Fold this sequence. Notes:
Elements: H1 2-19, E1 29-33, H2 42-52, E2 59-63, H3 65-74, H4 79-88, E3 96-100, E4 103-106, H5 109-117, E5 130-136, E6 141-145, H6 151-157, E7 167-169, E8 172-176, H7 185-191, E9 195-199, H8 213-227, E10 238-240, H9 255-278
Parallel strand pairs: 1-2, 1-9, 2-5, 9-10
Antiparallel strand pairs: 3-4, 5-6, 5-8, 7-8
Helix pairs in contact: 2-9, 5-6
Amino acid sequence: MANVLRWLGSAVKGLRSFAYEAPVGRPSLGLALGGGFARGIAHIGVLRVFEENEIPIDFLAGTSVGALIGASYASGTPLDDLERQGALTHFRDFGRWTISKFGMATNERLEGFLYRTARAKTFEELSIPFAIVATDIQRGESVYFTTGELGPPLRASCAFPGLFIPVEYEGKVLVDGFLTEVVPTEALRKMGADIVVAVHLDSGQLENRPRNTIEIIGRSFSIIQEQSQPRWNRFADFILEPEVKNILWDDFQKTPQLVAAGAAAARAALPEIRAALKRPAPSSRRSPETVRTSSEA
């Protein structure tokens, strides 16, 4: 029995390695979708422009809401469906207020929300190699998920500290991936992407006084990140920054405006991205690193 399990494990790894093999003749492209609550709907506009202009996406990685949209898209959910769902979304669809010393709400409902929008429940069912990034709160480092169930890693990646209770999964206490990778560009490099396009959703400054604790926490994290040298941009070849600064974290009703902002940012970068894709593929590609889940680490 042990030999059979080892053989199955080797076979799965071989299939995943084949799926991650870069295209021949052109550079491979990875798209990194950053976090930002409702602002993440702008990712739909970016994906739509890439589709309309036949920009290939060989690898996808998502942090927080970027993980939700990335998983749904990689599962084959049409962008029009994602846009309709975005406009109908409310906090109660993915969060439930509770009493806990670890957070003000639980995001257990997020798994059901994902499975209502996505056409897959596991990474292996996705049509595009995909990584979800969460943060190990004890070690202070990124944890990458590329195999197994989509639901628990997604919840972990979206567990905004102070708001949502951390997610305990595979022996780790996990919170929002934005703490270590606001935009998951490093994950794409580890997967083997030659060109990395990052979608960064800048929260900007609050125009008015904070309305609640969530906005206090969110703005505090943004200030810390603004004052430090961001690591994620070192791994990006192109950085798209949709104009979403004035949209609040829970303003899902502004879905059309958010989608339009993402599309505008993508269109502006199209000439340079097309030019990069026309260059020859690297003659000696670096082999993709093994992107391990916490159970394999």
